[in-house]
Write a structure and sequence with these properties.
The protein is an alpha+beta fold. The chain has a domain at 65-178. Helices cover 47% and strands 26% of the residues. It has 5 helices and 5 strands. The protein has helices at 2-16, 21-35, 41-58, 83-96, 157-178; strands spanning 69-77, 100-107, 112-120, 129-138, 141-151. α1 (2-16) runs antiparallel to α2 and α4 (83-96) packs antiparallel against α5 (157-178). 18% of the residues are buried. The model has no long low-confidence stretch (mean pLDDT 86).
Length: 179
């Protein structure tokens, strides 16, 4: 059916001398796939959220940047409640004064995917930060990754990393229950 729509668009464009009909038919087919969530829906949602976040950053007052945080999360696939894990991570980031937290879970054998980013609007320069990442394994399979970025203050990194490792150890059983 989808091939027929694009073929009809191409043929009618040629016969009527309207070249714009062919790309319109392709856009209609792509739109149908996205709207029915058969293909590309998660990617379009992710792009829309990144675009809206970028647009919002253009209109943000410069003096509020130090206190504001930007958070976006999107369920790419599946129905499991990854938001509870994500909320725990963002609360930790806020409490520990982190600059950024990123969680990317991809569990294709269960058709599950979740992507979340939390960051302060005003990030320090790269050389004024430390960063680390932690792979998430469930049932001896790679399920995702959590990355954090913190300010490079004297004596801050090691206690925060120790708390982060504790948090991840506490989250693993919760993640295993979701999987």
């Amino acid at each position: 059916v989808l091939s027929l729509i694009t073929a009809a668009g191409a043929l009618s464009g040629q016969l009527l001398g309207r070249d714009w009909l062919a790309p319109i038919s392709v856009a209609v087919v792509f739109g149908m796939l996205v709207v029915t969530k058969a293909f590309g829906y998660a990617e379009v949602v992710l792009m829309a959220r990144k675009g809206s976040s970028f647009a919002a950053s253009l209109f943000e007052p410069a003096d509020l940047g130090r206190t504001l945080v930007r958070e976006r999360s999107v369920r790419l696939q599946g129905t499991r409640q990854w938001e509870t894990v994500w909320q725990t991570l963002t609360e930790f980031a806020e409490a520990e004064g982190l600059c950024k937290v990123h969680m990317d879970l991809n569990v294709p054998w269960l058709e599950e995917g979740f992507h979340g980013t939390w960051q302060r609007s005003k990030m320090p320069d790269r050389h004024d930060c430390w960063n680390t990442g932690m792979p998430i394994h469930v049932s001896q399979r790679m399920a995702g990754r959590i990355d954090i970025v913190g300010p490079a203050g004297v004596g801050q990194a090691l206690p925060t990393l120790a708390k982060f490792l504790e948090l991840v150890e506490d989250l693993i059983p919760q993640i295993e229950l979701l999987v």
